[in-house]
Amino acid sequence: MRSLFKPETAVIKGIKAQTPDTATYTLAFADAKKQSDYSFRPGQFNMLTILGIGEAPISISSPVDERLTFDHTIRRVGNLTKAMSSLQEGDTVGIRGPYGNGWPVEEMRGKNILLIAGGIGLAPLRPVIQQVARHRRDFGSLEILYGARTPADGMFSDEYAGWRGVSDTKLWLTVDQVPDGNRWDHDVGLVTDLVEDRMESKPQNTVVVMCGPEIMMKFVVKALLARGFKPGQIYVSLERRMECGVAKCGHCQMGPIYVCKDGPVFNYAEIKDLPEEVL
Amino acid sequence: MALAEPLVYAARAATLGGKDLAFLVSQLAGKYQVFGPTRKDGEIALGPVQSLEDLELDYVTTLLPPKKYFYAPFDTIFSFHREGGVIHEENLEERRVLFGLHPCDVNALLLLDRVFTGQYEDDRYKRKRENTLIVGLNCNKPGENCFCSSFGTGPDLRRGYDLLLTNLGDRYLLEAGSGAGEELLHELRLKKAEPQAFLAKENVTRLAKGAIKKKINTDNLPKILNQNFGHGKWAELKEECLACGACTIVCPTCYCFNVFDKLDLTLKHGERQIVWDSCVLLEFGEVAMGGNFRRTRAARIKQRIYHKLSYFETQYGALGCVGCGRCVTACIKKIDPTAIVNAIRGE
C-alpha cells in the first residue's frame, strides 16, 4: 500500500556549487518509470528526505520540459540542508511530490513578466525564466530584478549572460554590500531600490512574480502599488514551516489557507486582507 | 451462549439489561480488539477492554480523545534502513471497536475525517477508520465544562456510529447506525426495542441538554471573530496563557503534528514518526535561520481559537470545536473558549 508520507528513492546525478553555502543538486528517481511519469509546474516543490535526518520542502529549480532529471537548489541553513551538503554524486535521497500550485503560467502567456527575487528566492523562479527563454514568443517582455547579500551570493550567476541574451529581456542586479576586494559592476542596495531606480516595467499588461525574504517582498509590494500596479497582478511565493506538504501537519496555515496546498504561490489580492497579517 | 429467547430479533434497535450489555462487550471482545473508557489512576482513559468490568461507562470525558487510535502521539509511519530505504510499513488491518465514545468525540472523528481525506488522502488514517467500529454512548451526565449543545455535537449522537447506547436507567437502548451495526445486532439476537424505550431516550436527552451550563453563540461566529482580530481580549489572554500546549493535546479535533526520524543505537535503522505538535508552542511557526511566523503568544492563542471557530469552517465546512470542554479542564489557568467568545461578542 502506498503511504501519503512515503518517499521515493532518487539518485543524485550531479552537484553544482552556486555560492559558498548553496548548491544545485540534479536528481532522478531510481525507478525509471517513476522518473518518466514525473512532471511538475514551475514554482512547485518536493518534500526532500534524508532517512535518519528528516524531511524539508524544497522548490524545484529546473525547467519543466527537462524530463530526465530535476533540480533542487539548496542553501545550508537547517539540519536537512546541512546533511545534504555532505552527500555526493551517486548517493540517494527520498522525494515526495510535486506539491503546491506553482506560478500562474497560463495567465502569464502573452503578458509582460516582471520577475523579482531575493537570495535563494531565485530558485523557484528559474523555471519561469527557462520557460520564457524556450518558448519566447508565448510571452511579452521579461524584466528580472535580483538582489543578493554580496556578489558571491548571487545564484545561477553563470546563467546571467544567457538570460541577457534572450530577446526583449532585461536583468538588473543588486547586492546589499560589496566586501573589499570583490569586483561588482552592478547596483549596491536593496531590491526595492531597483524597483525605484532601474525598473522599466509598467503596470499595463504585466504580471509580477516574486520570491524572496518576506521583508523584501513587503517593501517591494508597497513600491509596486505606489507605481500603479494592482494587487491582483502581483504573485508571491511564500515560505512557511512545513512538515508534510499535503495539508495535514497544520504548520503552514495562514488564516484558512494551507501554504503547501493552496500556495506556495499566491495572488497578493487573495492574501492581503487575511486576519493574520502576511506581508 | 443463549439469552432469554426474544420473540422478534432486533434489526435497528434493541434494549439491553445489565447481563445483555456484558454479553455484548464479551462478544465484541471475542472478535475485535476493543477499547473504551477505563479507570486509570483515578482518571478515565481510553484503554483496552476485555469485559464489561473493565469499562467505566459513567464518565464525563476521557483524558485523551479517541484521535490517539488513528494517529498516536508518537506514531510510526514507516521504519527504514538508512542505506536500504523504507523497509516496513505498519499493519493497519487490525479490526477494532471503540466502545462507549461520547457524542462529542464521535463528532470530532467526523471532523478529522474531513482533514485526513480530501485532496491528499491519508491512507493510513483511512484504513484505521475503516477497520474500526464505533459504539457511541449518549451522554446523560454532562460535565461543568461541557458545551457540546452549542455545536449540535451532543449530548445525543445523530451520526457517525455503528452502534449507539443510551442509558435509560434500568436498561440500555442499543441502536444500529450502519450496516455493520445492524449485522451485529442481528448476530447477537438481542430483544427488539419497544416504543417506550425511544420515549425514555428522548427524556434522557432532554434532561442532559438541560444540565449543560456553558454555551457559545455560533451565529455568524467566524465573521465576528475575523472582525475582532485586534480585540482587547487577546491582549488580556496573552498574559493569562502559559503556552503549555495542554489544550491542544487533549483536544479531539487538534491534528497538527511534527515529523521526526528516530534512529536506534546502531544509527543505521530508524523510524519516521508523526509526533503531536501544538500551535500554541513557540517552535510551531519556526523556520530555518531563526525565522518565526508566530513569535508572540497572542498570535499563537489566536491561531488556536481562530482555527477552531473560524478558519476550520472555511477549510472544511463546519466549525472545528465539538464542545467537549477538555481544553478548559486541562488548562492550569482555566482559559475557556466560551468566555472568550462571550467577551468578544459582548454577551
Assigned CATH architecture of the largest domain in chain A: 3-Layer(aba) Sandwich
Query: Which outline of chain B best applies?
Result: globular
Strand content of chain B: 15-25%
Q: So how many helices of chain A?
A: 9
Radius of gyration of chain A: 18 Å
Q: Specify which chain pair forms the largest interface.
A: A-B, 37 and 54 residues
Helix content of chain B: 25-40%
Major β-sheet profile of chain B: 7 strands, mixed
Structure description:
The complex is a heterodimer of chains A (279) and B (347). Helices cover 21% and strands 31% of the residues of chain A. Chain A has 279 residues and is of the alpha/beta class. In chain A, strand 11, helix 7 (214-226) and strand 12 (234-237) form a beta-alpha-beta unit. Chain A is globular. The termini of chain A are far apart. In chain B, strand 10 and strand 11 form a beta hairpin. The model of chain B is unreliable at 1-8 (pLDDT under 50). In chain B, the strands form 2 sheets. Chain B has a 7-stranded mixed β-sheet, with helices on both faces. In chain B, strands 5-4-11-10 form a 4-stranded antiparallel β-sheet, with no helix packed on it. Chain B folds into 2 domains: 13-211, no CATH class; 221-345, no CATH class. Chains A and B meet through strand 13 of A and strand 4, strand 5, helix 3, strand 10 and strand 11 of B.
